[in-house]
Amino acid sequence: MREILGKIAISSLFWLVGTGFHCVATISPAVAQSVAPPAKINSSAAAETDPARRLLARVIEQIALGPAFDAKFRQRVWVGGREVIGVGTYEQAGDGSGWFNMQVAMHDGDGKHTLQQISDGRLAWTREQIGQDVSLQRVDVGRLDQWVHGGTNQTMNTPVHREEPPEPDHVVDHLVDHLPPSVRVGGWTEMLESIAADHDLHVVSGRLEERDVWIVRGTMRADVRAARLEQFGTKDWPELCPTQVVVAIAKNASPENDFGQGLPLRIEFWTDPSKPQAAPNEDATDTNSDTVDNTLAADSHGLPTSPEAPTTSNGSNGNAVAAMQKGHLISLIELYSIRPISSPPIGRFRFENQDMAVNFTNDTDRYLARYGIHITERQSRMLRR
Length: 385
What we know:
Region (Disordered): 272-319
Distance between the termini: 37 Å
CATH superfamily: Lipoprotein localisation LolA/LolB/LppX
CATH topology: outer membrane lipoprotein receptor (LolB), chain A
CATH architecture: Clam
Number of domains: 1
Helix content: 10-25%
Strand content: 25-35%
Number of helices: 11
Structural class: alpha+beta
Mean pLDDT: 76
Largest sheet: 12 strands, mixed
Number of strands: 12
Order of helices and strands: HHHHEEEEEEHHEEHEEHHEEHH
Radius of gyration: 20 Å
């Protein structure tokens, strides 16, 4: 039971920071790696959701190209009637370097499980440990930078702007194509780009814990949903796979340190609304009703309990009780203690492999199609080194 809950908890965050998969509890990281990357945005959806997508693009740029910062974060996952809590740290060198280090430990009540993603702009590593089992994945982001720009030897710590976009058949989205892969793989940047690619988005204003925020709400696109169902091999959507997302983004800098404008503060992942049922009695409760009141969507300052629930003109909840029964919160991520730092030396972002007996998986191939990269056989052999 310990190993199962650990895998559920870790695999949920494993997707949230960049595997491109949506299930919290029904899939393992090994299967997640075989799932196709997020689908390409179609023109009609892009036209309808441009303001929200432009906002997410600015957030990605702020993280990747802005000044160095660090932060703490919490993740809470509700699965199988239990709540699993993770606490982690995130450090980003910024300035287009692609250097970041994210570490999180999750506790399932029986044990501790860890996940680390770290990149020095040349190699991005993911180390996952559940109990005594360790797995390693690597992405050669430095090579991706070179290949996406025709093999030029450009400086990896400055953003490279592409003259021409890749062919439409080979790209997920054009949201941040002007940024090199080294600043888009892993961490919050890939998570946000995946959200933009897979969801129809809308943006509103609100407040979160006395702070003005932009609220980006997303509903999974119909074609993405159909593709996922085909991959699952089922007609019924798994109840622990999120189909809705809510992201809160700081409108202004924190009054404590005059920093953090344009950075994400909270991300929620929700299931489908429940199927219509008879009116519940007074004793009926939601599986996570004791915790949902602490979420962004139920915050008394602005947002409804469900991402799709109605709001009044001033942003308050129009029908919180009814909305609470429409969907279930699966995962909540909260970023806090966000502060500026001096740009750390590159040594802080180099992976120290202490698991020499563990064979790593090179995941670079997963990103070739995403970024429209075609490589030679010789270059392919380089990935197996």
